[in-house]
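Help: read this over?
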Amino acid sequence: MSANNRFNLSGFNPSQWLVVSALALVVTVTGIVGVSLLASAYQLQQNKSRLVPQIARLKGLVATEQDIATAAQAAADTLGQLTYSDQSEPGALANNMQQSMRELFVEAGLTVSGSQVLPAVKQTEFTRIRVRLTASGGVTSLTDILIMLADQNPIVVIDSIEVKPRRRRKLDEGQELSVTVVLSSFMQVSG
């Protein structure tokens, strides 16, 4: 057979052409579908590889959801113990704080010579309630009041303290101190 006879397609009748064309179409469509399926499978595998760590992280969050809720409740309870609720008026709280701090200073052995409610300071999540007290007494009384302030609920913070020695009238008297202190407590701001 010569080279011309090998590729001579004129000998096919129309039904053979139809079969050959249909076969070529089936092979082409099968090839396109196969390549498309392989590309989709590869993309799904890539997505799976990316999603597996995210799913594991979400499963971990779900598993610790109760622990997180318990910790959030404990934090809210602690915050409630350390601050005044937002149900109160800052001015009334400041007056109550002034009176209770005067009583606490007297209980510690200090003589209170003056007290003043300072303007409340509004901050993002809290309103700072402030009181200035001036008192006098011995070193032991000053130490006692500092210990007593540390145990207060709601919390009382010392913003500033100024301690000066007072003049002694008699040599046998102990050292007398003059103390001016600015104290703060906090009220929650409802959001």
User: Anything to note?
Assistant: The beta strands are 111-122, 126-138, 157-165, 176-188. The CA atoms of residues 138 and 173 lie 10 Å apart.
